[in-house]
Amino acid sequence: MNDSKPNAERSILDREPRELTPHVARNAELVDHTLTRAHANLIRRLFPGELERIVRAHELEQIKTGFDYRRRILHMAVETKLQAVEEMCNHLLVTGKSEIRRERQEFFAGQSLKLQVAMDECAEAFNRQIDGRFQRLDTLRHEYLRRKEEERLLKAVEQFHAMLDELAAEFVAIIHEGVNR
Length: 181
Hints:
Elements: H1 7-15, H2 21-46, H3 50-137, H4 143-175
Helix pairs in contact: 3-4
């Protein structure tokens, strides 16, 4: 071995088996050659010839094409994921809306039933009361009083039934009043 080499280099070479010594020397030559070529290429890079410019232009075009390709693939991947998220959100909205619609329909059906029962009870009470008043008409002695009272009772019956119809129509209007949102 060469004694002029520093201890660090000698110790590395000393650790290598003797069979590898030619290969280690060849690797050292290759490294030196590569470094020399890299320094020589510095001048070519600073002042490129026609061939180097053409090669560099093609390399840049390849790099641009590669980046453009990757950008398009990334854009397609993002669009695909966005579409999947949009479809998932639409599915959730549809299922959520259908549940809300079902609850709303059940609520309004229940309220409609309550309203109908309350209106029926009021109508029955009103009809009993009016029927009793119509029966008492015969007890009035004067025809004029009987006729006026009968007109008043008939008017009350018409107004009461008109009011029931109006209440039912208002309830239906409430249901159709933009609750669909």
